[in-house]
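User: Mind token order:
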Amino acid sequence: MPTSAPTTHRSWVVAQTSDATSPFALDRRAAFEFEAELAKEVYRHPQWLRRRSRCWLILVILLVDVEHCLSHLGFMPKHEKNDVELVRTWVLPPSATLGSSVRVKGILLELRARLPIASKKSLDIEQGELTLAMPASAKAEFHGAASVVATALEDIESMPVIPREIQDILSIKTSERHRWLKDGRLPSAGTRTVKLRGRARKITFHVFDPRVVEDLLNRGVVDEWREEDLAATAENRRRAAYKAKLTRSLKNAGKSSKTIERHPDDAATKLRGWEEFNVDGLLR
């Protein structure tokens, strides 16, 4: 059987490649070779399988044609592949990340903030490894960004720890951080003021020394602090209950003393004519 039958439907979709004036004119050599190989595979099988495979062949060819046409007309983005790419990687030490994914994300954002706007998205991180990737045509930008990243990584281990990072490192809650910061158990390394994007008001928050945070993590003092807080809470409740009980007892004692000090004839003196009746001495 001739192998050109399944490809006759393509005449209305794509013009000839030699027609330079047609908006659909493009190089179809690769598509023709693919369709020919696929047709050969279809016609090797028996007729009962060939009919079903022919339908699939027509569907595949239509999809390929539509994709090429849309890409040629600009409806689909063209992905330009650049085989040559400039890449440089850096591995973050554990002493810088402190085993926290939030800390890793914070380091990435800090490094991106130091790069030019056009180079920010070129820096990414995955599993603790920083990667700077740019096309080969941007050699100057690549070397400039690599220099900035390398300089920033020299003292990355001393970068202050922000609140959300210390909460993830020590596995603590926001209320615990505020309470321990207030009573001095969690020492602060100063404050930092930033302006969030899209907001007019600036915010100020405490930052922490990474070496102090690492020491707290290694000593496991968080569990001890929580036990101390539980004991202090129980003691405060006991004192509050005792104070409330003492207040109630004092009120009851005051009421009973007033009742005892009152004279038994006080109520009788309020009766009209009691004084005249008492002068007559009828009760003596």
